[in-house]
Amino acid sequence: MHPTRKAVVTAAALLVMATSAGCEPGAGATASHRDSSAEPGCPTVLSKAKQAVKKAEAVNAPWRGPTSGPKAVHGKTVVYIAQTLTNPGVAGVAQGVQEAAKIVGWHARTVNGQGTPDGQRAALKQALRLKPDGIVISGFDPGVAPAEVKKANSEGIPLIGWHAAPAPGPNKEPKLFSNVTSRVEDVAKISADWIIARSNGRAGVVLFTDATVPFAKRKSDLIKKELATCSGTKLLSYTNMPIPEVNRRSIKEVRSLLSRFGSKWTYSAAINDLYFQHAAPALRAAGKDGAGAPFNIGAGDGDPSAFQRVNGKEFQAATVPEPLSEQGWQIVDEFNRAFTGAPDSGYVAPVHIATATNSGGALSWDSEGYRQAYRKIWGD
């Protein structure tokens, strides 16, 4: 059994025993009066958040994906275009694609988009020159290369996205056979709910995003919206740091935030875990305790380095992991459906929260039994 399936007492269960005070945010003048009262918080929202977090922290996640589909065709070639291979989530899915492709006898090649629109367009041009059977657009907006996407469509090369469109499943414009991702609404909501629940409805939050990627921006906007449902939770800063710039900008940004907000900064959320990898040195240099405030949650990816920080309580308290390897296998399965004229599977992975309490020391999270399920479908 995978370590993350061990039955444990979750942080959410402990939170249920905590008491809360306060009132629900209202509208207009009433809301303004309540927000300024001596009883901050949001008891109704808080109760719902705790219930949602408890469910998401459950470790038993049996396979609920497809159990039937076309047998594997062999001898195909797919090209995986990575937004940037410095993004651990993108790199993790690439590894899953490589693993699954080997099982079905395909050749999978990864091309690095270098984290820029120019690099991604060049990578897509390169992929088209290779005349593959399918192309993966991973972690970036296909709209950066409209001519190349149109060429792939006209040549009958199916495109499959990973975090390349706002929603899972087929996408009409630009045309994707399927976009593999969890539901951004679910990930955003549970990330905000974790902050509301863990803080008992009283948090000062810094939110990090990459506004250059529509998927990421939408996720952070949804986190912001959910945080606003609790009157005792205050958004201190909504900080835009494009993923390719996080490495060089994080220390300066974190120092600035600490200077501006000090102890008021108690929680952080980011559109993925990479932000906390680079924020950690600045927080450490400021004398912050890795197991203390600000308590940080990554709203997506859940790569091994994020699990290491979470398990070690090193400036990251939680992650909402994508099942990265599993989604790589799903991409291969979706291609197989496209190659055989079948519709997409329609599968969307469930939302999960991983903490030091429930991870069991694991460095990833995937649904139980996905490899066996896909191999059975493919006839391997």
pLDDT averaged over residues = 89
How much strand content do the residues show?
Answer: 5-15%
The outline comes out as globular
SSE string: HHHEHEHEHEEEHEHEHEHEHEHEH
List the strand order in the largest sheet. 2-1-3-4-6-5
The percent of residues in helical segments reads: 40-55%
**Termini separation:** 22 Å
Structure notes:
This protein has helices at 11-16, 28-35, 43-56, 88-104, 117-129, 146-154, 184-198, 214-227, 246-261, 274-285, 304-312, 324-339, 370-378; strands spanning 77-82, 107-112, 134-138, 159-162, 169-171, 176-180, 203-209, 233-240, 267-270, 295-298, 318-319, 354-355. It has 380 residues and is an alpha/beta fold. It is globular and about 55 Å long.
Summarize this structure as a short list of keywords or feature phrases:
380 residues; 6-stranded mixed β-sheet; 12 strands; alpha/beta
